[in-house]
């Protein structure tokens, strides 16, 4: 399965912010849309990612003062990205290695979407469930050995 297949199923809704967006606006956007990340874009290019991880870290460090910060001050500047033609298993491995929960999908310099660890896990689960159902159906309709032997010997 390719990353582009998951992205196609998920849809193309993107939530972005600029590096100079205030954290209070970013947090409000994330809460309003029930999302765990914002893609930070600067002059049409990926500049970073803002996720719960960065928000929790700055909340711990700055407390109530955090709302006065700009997104660019805390965003992850070099987020893990994926190509739409990447195999999902390779993406899963990279996500686990980097402890990344949200991955911008980039086709060159064009942002195609964002996949979460949940999106990837759901797609893999659904694919495996489908394969499992197909195998069970195939095994259920498997001809008996005696039936095969009789047919193979012309009924002798």
What is the fold's blueprint, element by element?
Layout: H1 3-10, E1 16-17, H2 23-33, E2 37-42, E3 45-51, H3 52-62, H4 88-98, E4 102-107, E5 110-116, H5 117-140, H6 145-152
Parallel strand pairs: 1-2
Antiparallel strand pairs: 2-3, 4-5
In short:
Helices cover 47% and strands 18% of the residues.
What is the approximate shape? elongated
Number of domains: 1
Helix content: 40-55%
CATH third-tier fold name: CBS-domain
Overall SS class:
alpha+beta
Order of helix and strand elements from N to C terminus: HEHEEHHEEHH
Runs with pLDDT <50, length 5+?
A: none
Beta-strand share of residues:
15-25%
Please write the CATH class name: Alpha Beta
Using only C-alpha atoms, the radius of gyration works out to 23 Å
Please tell me the overall pLDDT: 87
CATH homologous superfamily descriptor: CBS-domain
Report the span from N to C terminus.
Answer: 48 Å
Strand order of the largest sheet: 1-2-3
Largest sheet: 3 strands, mixed
What is the helix tally?
6
